[in-house]
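Workshop exercise sheet. Pairs work together: one partner reads the sequence aloud, the other fills in the structure field after running the prediction. Swap roles for the next sheet.
Pair: D.N. / O.F.
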Amino acid sequence: MTLLVVLTVVAAALLIAELAIYLFVVGSQLLRVAEQLEGCSSVVWDIRDNAEPIEAGVERINNTGKVIAGALPLLYGMAEGIVVGATFEPSPDAEPVVARPAMKRRRTRLHEAVGYLPAEQ
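Structure field:
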């Protein structure tokens, strides 16, 4: 009977040791995840801060799009009226002209339009 008691105590001690090792490993992994989430939170706050000025610009863009969409039927009707009397036939001996850009590279002003200023300015 004493051998059975000793083996039971050893098995219980091994079980407790395995559980302690398991909890240590899981705890260290959770600490690593917590540190990475803390780093991500600052990135999320930066994104939120950069997105706040864009909201007003998006509303303005939507309003402009509504105006343009409302004017499209009128413009379409005017274009139909112009095209009815115009027919273009290119001369057979004319060579096609290659379209070239008017300038080398344009600097975008879209950021300033919505109130976003990149950090490097």
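Discussion prompt: The chain has a mean pLDDT of 82. What would you look at next?
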